[in-house]
Amino acid sequence: MGELEGDLLVLGAGGKMGPSLCRLARRALDAAGRDDVTVHAVSRWSDPAAARDLAGHGVRTVAFDLMDPDADLTDLPDAGNVVFMVGAKFGSSGAPAHAWAVNAAMPDRVARRWSGARIAAFSTGNVYPLVPVGSGGSTEDDAVAPVGEYAMSCLGRERIFQHAALTRGTRVALIRLNYAIDLRYGVLADIGERVRTGEPVDVTTGHANVVWQGYANEAALRSLLHATAGDGEGFTLNLTGPETASVRRMAQWFGAELGQEPVLAGTEAQTALLSDASRCHALFGYPDVPLRTLVRWQADWLRRGLPLSGKATKFQTRDGRF
To answer: Looking at domain 182-209+242-272+288-303, which of 3.30.470.20, 2.60.200.20, 3.90.25.10, 1.10.357.20 is its CATH number?
Structure first.
């Protein structure tokens, strides 16, 4: 963060990952003595308390609706670095036009407004097809094959940013994430809460990739200095943990932690949505919180009745309908 040129603008900062990414960025800049760099957090801020909390951490919050047809992006700050975190996933099967507007059309406006910036744009591992469980997951060099409107619109987002890199020299890093773990939500919260309440855990989608959200935020910020322009796919990075994690095994771990025998349903399919993040780990190191530790933390969170977001990841979805 100490090497950044210009301010940092986080678009979609009010979502599940945005506040913690902004706080991490501000702490890193302070540690590097970069009080000349402002972190601008842009969101509609439907939760004013989240904006107040970020302001208390030295982050400048900006209330702005990027989907407002009358909104003028020139009203937002100039910045040398942009993290794009805006996206529409849930409900996309019932409102595909909205998903395309958010995931593919908006990035064109953003890429034009900050054409001279470094842009780290969050994408998703859903742009890949389901792959055999023993394959180790899709790599960045594998062919994409998105299933469903959500995944296709996210690939559209990538292509729009790549077009900006090709035609306007915008430096772009594309981050294909699946799945970040915050104790309020995520794959582990989904599995652990079902074990705790005695609900069946469907193991048909029997394997998943997960990664601690702190590592995901750090990798996204670090990727800014790897953003590239010009021909080809540019800098594209799978971002997830190193394990092909068994849903059955994780449910059993939660059962041991919570003193509750897990109820399992279904039979494991031979394929799953899996990504190989070895390129990310080679650049930035292994995630510093192991999977077993994440399960223990999650179980403790659930045992104490601490709040959950109430938004399931739907990681079990196999037909691309979210």
So the answer is: 3.90.25.10
